[in-house]
Structures are given as structure tokens and as C-alpha cells.
Amino acid sequence: MQKLDLAKELRENAYPGRGIVIGKSADGTKAVTAYFIMGRSENSRNRVFVEDGEGIRTQAYDPAKLKDPSLIIYAPVRVLGNKTIVTNGDQTDTIYEGMDKQLTFEQCLRSREFEPDGPNYTPRISGIMHMEGGGYNYAMSILKSADGDPQSCQRYTFAYERPLAGEGHFIHTYMHDGNPLPSFEGEPKRVEIAGTIDEFTQMVWENLNEENKVSLFVRFIDIATGAYETRIVNKNV
């Protein structure tokens, strides 16, 4: 699979929806993740990321304008020991609770499907990062409808062992803008991971569509020690 320019992928897609990037820094010492949200409706755009323990959660920027919190207020990032969970919905909690009971990442998601927001039936995208004994691996998942038909749920899991320095994978909810919104297709995209945490954060934020972007979370985790740095950028400040 060709390694793609993440900046170009973001810049040329006005509405990828919500996206997860997971990989390894160019120097090979850091596990890297980014999660962003976008919005077309007032309700979706009325959000910010806030820190919540070792993770983050979404919060209404203006509580008076919050209409339906069911699919937009959740914890996208939670940490369970040496595992970092990143998702686009409340399946973060499903994975956290399941893995705490020794279920696998894939087993945890068996109880979940795509979001009940027809006609889009937004895919549930999830990632898990695992560091142990100086090693690092990650996996990504997508639960999606059968080309917009909610009668069938299609489940895909992609596992990456001993990831290479300077690259990662990018999965997002929608192929592009549309009505209804077309679900992501194929494997997560192989993308370059470059720069410091601040350079990487700036690159992602600047290349997200200005009108539709809402919030961005980036974390670099030291593979050897587990120490991490986090950046959060909110359009609503």
C-alpha cells in the first residue's frame, strides 16, 4: 500500500467526518495518535474537547444550544493501564469495560454496531494502542452498514504489529461529503507521521476543512516509559 501524505488527504476532503490516526514517530520512540471531529449541523459544531483524567471527553461549548447529546457527547479517549483507547463514540466505554474483563478488542465490539442515525448510519471507528516491555502494537476497527442498508453490519479489524517508524494508519467515518454521507471503504490509509507533537498537531489542524472542523486531540506516548504529551485544539474557544 502506498504511503500517503496525510496533509493532502485532509486538505482534499471537505468532510471526512471523524478521524483516527495511529502510528509511530519518525524517531521510533513515540506512539502517536490523533482524533478529530467535524460537524455540519449546529449541534455537531457546538462542541469542545476537554481533559478527563488520562483521557478526554466532548462537551457542549454552549449548553443552551445542545439539542440531542446521544451521539455527540462521549469520551473519545480512555486509558486502561498500558492501553490507550480512541474511538468516535461511546464504544470507548464498551472497549474499556470489556478489556478490563480480559476480552479482546474485537470481542468487546461484538456488542456494538454502526450508529442509529439513518440515512447516514455513521460507522463506529475505534483504535487500541498497546505498549509493553518496550514494544508497541495497535489495531483499528470499523463497524459499518452494508452500503447504507442497516439490515447488515459489516465488521473489520486491522492489526499492526511492530509498526514502522515514521508511519501510521488513518481511518475516518465518511469517504467524503454527501447526502446521505457515504461510509469509509477499504483498509485504513497508510500515512506518513512526521515532526514533533506541535508540528504534527499544527499540520493536521491547518489541513482540516476550515468550515467543518470542530476539535482535535493529539498524543505522543513514550514507548519505553509510557509518559505522554497531549495537545487539544478547539475551534470554539
The structure class reads mainly beta
Order of helices and strands: HEEHEEEEHHEEEEEHEE
Strand order of the largest sheet: 11-10-1-2-12-13
> How many helix segments?
5
Indicate the CATH topology. Answer: Glutamine Phosphoribosylpyrophosphate, subunit 1, domain 1
- Please give the domain count: 1
At CATH level 2, the architecture is 4-Layer Sandwich
Sequence stretches where pLDDT stays below 50 over 5 or more residues: none
| Oligomeric organization of the protein chains | single chain
Query: What gross morphology would you assign?
Result: globular
Portion in helices? 10-25%
Radius of gyration: 16 Å
Question: What value does the average pLDDT take?
Answer: 97
Record keyword descriptors for this entry.
237 residues, mainly beta, Glutamine Phosphoribosylpyrophosphate, subunit 1, domain 1, six-stranded antiparallel beta sheet, five-stranded antiparallel beta sheet, 5 helices
